[in-house]
Amino acid sequence: MDLGISGRTALVCAASKGLGRACAEALAAEGVNLVLTARSVEPLELSAADIRRKFSVAVAVAPGDITTELGRMAALAACPAPDILINNAGGPPVGDWRTFDREHWLAAADSNMVSAIMLMRAVIDGMAERRFGRIINITSAMVKQPHSGLSLSVAARIGLTGFSKAIAAQYVAANVTINNLLPEQFETDRLRSNIQKLTAKSGRTLDEEVAAATASSPAKRMGRVEEFGAVCAFYCSAHAGYLTGQNVMLDGGRYPAVF
């Protein structure tokens, strides 16, 4: 299927590896030009070079921490008028919510809610004027199925989820959509780190914990980042203009409810 977005430009956050990188590659495969952000310069440059080589699209980089004002300014200077925005940022620390102080909660809100809102505010009206825009927020399956050990992430991402729904209907008539992708158990460095921290007292090795987590999934495997990227690309496509304000679970069937 031709997704109808060849020649468009996407700003992809936290794009040097993991789910952000997978989204960038899936968009590049559709002919989308990219501006990639990430905190670490060398991995970002390597990812950009690899995507250029594979897909022959324009790929620029804007190194910086997208959760800070300076990082967002750098990204928007490199890509002031994106057609597609992929909001993505590393999650906050895991652990017992009672051990987190006020600064932890504010930092989580800044990183996983406010930063995405600020980027949306900067670009969405321009998208509406040009009559095309696709915004994807990469959040977490924990938004719909919270885990106490991920309380910082849950609280901040639910805030972003509510905000996105609140404004989505305002822009869809201008062919601008806002949707959230909610991953769980995709094979990434972040997932393995979280599993290790959450199960540090179990006495099992990391590989044993990963195997147990996989066995408990209806899919009996972890998600592949390429699968996530493909879903992201479709939600960014010309065919998805009637689909907005949604929270899309990518969890291998783990979520038990109907809605």
From TrEMBL:
Highest taxon listed in the record's lineage: Bacteria
Listed SUPFAM superfamilies: NAD(P)-binding Rossmann-fold domains
Name assigned to this protein: SDR family oxidoreductase
Family label: Belongs to the short-chain dehydrogenases/reductases (SDR) family.
Signal peptide: none
Any coiled-coil regions, as ranges: none
Annotated InterPro entries: NAD(P)-bd_dom_sf, SDR, SDR_fam
Pfam families: adh_short (PF00106)
